[in-house]
């Protein structure tokens, strides 16, 4: 039953900006002394009696720095590399699964890479006292006796047992100052985040209280790639809910115990903590070489060699100098540095506008002078007039096949641009594009196929509601742009009649998809029905719009949470398993925008409030550091997929404008602009990684619909100027 140290290397250290950055977070920086806290942690746990080589769990991007820093101190370790950070519970689950698969009775000693513990002997003695209860099935955490009331740490209320290891009565969040003083007076302990337990115990408690975390971690370890001392966890790890070990297990388990300890400990979470543990002069100043502080007390200065810093007549401030950034903060306000890092003091490039009025002008110009011309030329097959699937960022075509939804979306965009009077040959582009679409995709029954080859031969003739919805939308735009309006109306009415044969007995329509009962395709059919109603269509369009709105309100939208689900069973109940818990912020925004339009046409009570709740759910999925809406949440609104495609950003912008939230709209416009910063002006990137970088891939043509709709909503007059 060996001891297996586990070093957790997650966390961005945003309160220690500008030194701590995503590519080199605080645990890899020598903030106190000559070694990083990661190196000090590795030496501390490697020296534990009976310890095996440490298991280090970290992000893929930090592999090289970890290997280099371990080599510097001569410590060997096993690296488990995450494809994406999912917080502490999935990381601990993966480490426990790795240990248990090799040593079923092994005891894990879980520590954070960024903690400051200057007395390794006291730490080792404390760990030794946890081993007996840990081997007996307890999960033992180290609770540090506070040296002062602190609002920077969570607290533990220990039980009254006489034994040195006590049951945990409660875990509590970081308190306000008054409450922190009360906690200290009542004998509460700081929650150090160090845990000792058998790996099998941790896995059993995760299975009981966070089964999705356990499942994803086990699979990611079983499928891990690599050999030797490095393993890359598989993509299955991304399926783990993003959650902390405290929330997932420790607050729910009956096995939690705490060992009170007295050694010096800090998580060095902010610059005031760095100052507190650093060596100081007689005026309690901690200074980089050469800094001068006449008349100053309790000052922290960190600056590169050769940079002169002078601080005169002040007290309790930190001056942090980096080659491309300078921070000056009161030590008493050091916790607020995180907000600075999250709102523009990072590597996120500035938007090309500063106000919403500036965004209107910029986007209208971009659409009229870049996007429409590029996609009407490079994005069109010159032989047929049909639209390409995408463009590479050097302008070369990406055209493996043709999908009906792309053809219909492009027709809609160019027809709407013509209707709005945006200068250019857009009416002819739309007319020719629809002729090519109809020639290749139209079925004898008036419906449209899913896919064709470049030759024009149909390769998937099935009826998909998604394709029909966008075809109706395209026909409406052609009708309003006066492109053979009578023929377009007749086609739309025939298509609508043919759709009746594809209705689902429980309401709505069944989709030809891996998820046959879904809200998304109905959303675009709702959009098409509203468009035809506004264009003067007969009562059938209004009836369809009302039917789909009612289906959304009664079935798609959760009655308690007010959010919209994606997938259902045949009775329009949430689908079983994880599919039924799928919540997309982008679709919250899109449905909010549509229901707001329906409310304006009907003035029915309660509808705007429903739309407002959907909008609020979507906003919960906005990563403020990147100013982007993420791809997927769970139905408890915890993060499921922190990547961010382009289209949710356009829906964020549209919905914010519809709700009259100009500040949110400006934020959405800034986030969206990052996707458009590409070598080929008028193209875009589609997928942002959780770290803010972009996947290299062609620009999908299907995104032009989303972008154009956002610009039409943002700048309807400018777009048509």
What does this entry look like structurally?
The protein is built from 23 helices and 26 strands. The strands form 7 sheets. Strands 5-8-6-7-10 form a 5-stranded mixed beta barrel. The chain has a 4-stranded mixed beta sheet with strand order 11-12-13-14, covered by helices on one side. The chain has a 3-stranded antiparallel beta sheet with strand order 16-15-26, with no helix packed on it.
Topology:
Elements: E1 3-8, H1 37-46, E2 55-59, H2 63-73, E3 78-82, H3 88-102, E4 107-112, H4 120-135, E5 139-144, E6 155-158, E7 166-172, H5 177-185, E8 189-198, H6 199-209, H7 211-222, E9 230-232, H8 245-250, E10 256-261, H9 271-277, E11 286-287, E12 297-302, E13 315-322, E14 325-330, H10 337-342, H11 356-377, E15 390-391, E16 397-398, E17 402-403, H12 404-420, H13 426-441, E18 451-452, E19 458-460, H14 465-480, H15 485-499, H16 520-534, H17 539-556, H18 585-602, H19 607-620, E20 622-623, E21 628-629, E22 632-633, E23 639-641, E24 644-645, H20 647-658, H21 662-673, E25 687-688, E26 699-700, H22 703-714, H23 716-719
Parallel strand pairs: 1-2, 1-4, 2-3, 3-9, 5-10, 11-12, 12-13
Antiparallel strand pairs: 4-8, 5-8, 6-7, 6-8, 7-10, 13-14, 15-16, 15-26, 17-18, 18-19, 20-21, 22-23, 24-25
